[in-house]
Write a structure and sequence with these properties.
The chain has ten helices and 14 strands. By secondary structure, it is α/β, with parallel strands linked by helices. It has two domains: 142 residues, ATPase, nucleotide binding domain (Nucleotidyltransferase, domain 5, 2-Layer Sandwich); 148 residues, 2-Layer Sandwich (Nucleotidyltransferase, domain 5), CATH 3.30.420.40. A five-stranded mixed sheet has the order 3-2-1-4-7, with helices on both faces. Strands 10-9-8-13-14 form a five-stranded mixed sheet. Strands 5-6 form a two-stranded antiparallel ribbon.
Length: 312
Amino acid sequence: MDKKLAIGVDIGGSHVSCVAYNLESKTLLKKTHAENDLDNHGQPDEIINTWGRTIRKTMELAGFDKVSGIGFAMPGPFDYVKGIPLFTGENGKYENIYGVNVPDLLKNYLELPGDFKIRFINDATAFAIGEDQVGKASDCSQSLSVTLGTGFGSAFIRNELPVVDGDEVPENGCLWHLPFENGIADDYFSTRGLISRFEMLAGEKLSGVKQLAELAGKNKIAQDLFDDFGIKMGMFLHPWIEKFGIEVFVIGGNISRAYHLFGNSLNKYLEKRGLKMEISVSELKEAAAFIGAATLVDNNFYKRIIPALSKM
């Protein structure tokens, strides 16, 4: 490959960030990082222009002539093969870009040739691929990676590729929508879940998990909530760990920074049920999504992953 660099783009609810990635050496070029805030309720031109302006900055820093393509880590619902958003407003974001052709609009904005590679994947799956490529799951063939934060993202990986169907994984390879307690897993294993449970028990509204973690050393309710979080996660994941034969479980997202408060209860629960596997907190963190997205630009990898993309 003459052009060894790919741009990994991470689309969040209120920002876009990107960085160049060397596909051969599997290293991020941190000095090419660019980021901008945006209004996810903005009009298509506003959103595409912000995405494009951010990508252009990274491409300029990396060298336009060295870049072979762009890969997006994108939340759903999204047509990941065609590059078309399917947000209807139920997600509370990006409803105004429903149905637009993102690759065409970006190529026009960035003045790129028609055959320039712009590819897309679910953001949680991008994180899992990054961990599998160069992170905590790189030495195993079967892993589960989750992102715990605003929502509950997940992806099962076998032999470098996401597994999205079959008896060993839930529908679409996702866990967030599965029933748990009085709602779904996304309600429980997320920032809003922890914060709402603390408010219900303590009568105090906290700003986020960081504040809750700071309270844990001196507030029994806070520590009990983290203990419960670890136990319940073990209960919820137990059947899927067994079915898929998970070797490494990687935890990312903002809540992973509080792993020291819930990891012990999680490990104890799984050990009592005879489940032996490695549990690791991501060191790559947000960088894993950049890597997973950028890896899509590799044609050999992309040909292998298209069947999974079409089912996400």
